[in-house]
Amino acid sequence: MPALAAATAILLVLVSTSPAAAQTGFTATEKAYFELHLDRSAYSPGETARLAAVVHVEAGWHIQSHQPTYDYLIPTELTLDLPQGWQLGEVRYPPDLMWHAGFADEELAVYEGTVSILATIGVPPDAPLGTEVDLVATLVYQACDDRVCLRPTEGQSVARLVVAEGGEALAHEAFEQTGGAGPAVARPGRSLFVVLGLALLGGLILNAMPCVLPVLSLKVFGLVKKTGQSRRQVTLGALATATGILVSFWALALAAIAARSAGEAVGWGIQFQNPGFVAFLAVVVVFFSLNLWGLFEIPLPAALGGVGGRHEGLLGHFTTGLFATLMATPCSAPFLGSAVGFALSQPAGATALVFTFVGLGMAAPYLLLAAAPGVARMLPRPGPWMEVLKVVMGFLLAGAAVWLLYVLSAQIAAHRLAFFEGALLLLALFAWIKSRASRAGRSRLPGVVGMAAAAVLAIGLAATSDPAAARAEGEGRIAWQRFDEPEALRLAEAGRLVFVDVTADWCATCKINERAVLESAAVLDAFARHEVVPMQADWTSRDDVIAEYLARHGRYAIPFYVLYRPGKPPHVFGELLTRGTVLSVLEESIPAKGIQTAEDR
Questions:
Q1: Fewer CB within 10 A of the end CB, N or C, for the chain?
Q2: How much is the pTM?
């Protein structure tokens, strides 16, 4: 049952990020356009046509070179859709210039203003005279200003080529250019290998995040029960858990690739925006808690039990790996945001590779245990105390269910949440009825049917709710304003500090930062003294405006914090805040006295 539940939850991840589950995708703002020009009015069969794509970049913006500085930046690339038999010759890109962006340590190779990309096209010798061919060109580029890089954008333009004798030369300054991009050169930057290292480290840190700790308690309990067993048994159990983690990360990568191919917004933990998924996960957690409390047992076939008996076999370990990953997705560990942001902007192969390394990082403790199973012998010997530990760990999982209810409270109406909680109570009641029937030798069917019906009722209440009918947010210690990017920029230009918090109720790391740092006395006092304007963007439910805002900053996961400040570029904080960091950045961002602001002018 738990294996089936966790496997189904993986499928829900796919559904929650699929095109059917989303309303609309989002596209980046266009910051460049291009025109096509031919060098002659007509071409004879067998001649070579010269084509110029003249690219106009908006003032204040740059587009990445055909050979960008960093591996993860998107190169400017021109492609042509030609009829069968027509040949595309050489494509020459203009020389790039080195530009220092405010968000990068190294200079970026870019194009700015108006530049031309030149190409040659071979007209087939057997092309009939009088033929008119529409040459469709596609330009893919990534635009950056001094603060951020936008998501890749694609534009198209068309030029009509005429096959005829006696074509006249068309004078255009683009064809006077003789320069072009030379051979590719190695430039410093963050390579795929560096990102894979960050992914591995971020995945390892996920094991210590509060989302995963309740699940790890299950695994510790299982290891204690296996104290004294053979090396082979411990090794197989650890490998099964690691396999479950990797399989779930591959499923997440597949979902992200599929959703991105369909033009949908994707991000780490985005499935927690689906109330049906959150409700399903809450039901699964309650099932696990009831099982640990001894209200019912879940027998497995002997063929699957293999290691450690019927109830703690390979399938059970594999399920633990699946479940651990599902519980980890609302947490964003240090280094994880950068790695996932890189992965979601790359081709499918790189995306899958980065997700694999995150999974390897999270599975590292179990892989270590598989390599050195003697470590399990350091744990206490089994005994009566394990029954007490089993109940305690059931309460830890129940605590995870309470947290999921808190997430759900911001996604569905209050009355539906009350009925959902009532359905969970029914689930527990029928589990108790089933347990009593088993001990008395009576039929367990009423209890099983009742548990299944209560689970379906609970999930249905959340899945069919209107996302707009959410409960009002509780009052916090900070008087947050609703996030408005143009207003934040205007206030910063006028001399004010604006602190932006992109958060969600399903983001456990966000809540820890808010309680431990942002709502601390020192930070609250600093906000008041410096008259900081606090703005909060709530990503609990789907919001493409917020998703695009994150993407423009190269982020696909939260928490995300930005301080807009006068006369300086915005400061982007890391995923884990500290009071010292926030206070020091605030102090160095205070506008100097005597500086004339926009309001003064």
A1: C
A2: 0.42
